[in-house]
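> Could you send the HIG1 domain-containing protein prediction when you get a chance?

Sure thing. Input:
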Amino acid sequence: MTLLIILACVFGGVALMVVFGEKYGKPMDEKQQGKYSKIIIVLVFILLITALIKNVM
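Output:
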């Protein structure tokens, strides 16, 4: 029963994010997308290295 409550809360939260994102969000321009993509690639690389180190030790 607890799992169903948690899933309902997650579903409700995602639904709210979608509704407010469509209502108040604005599309990003190409320059901003490029900047974020460079940052995300670095963060994912750091996360993978950290996970590898954590699993080896």
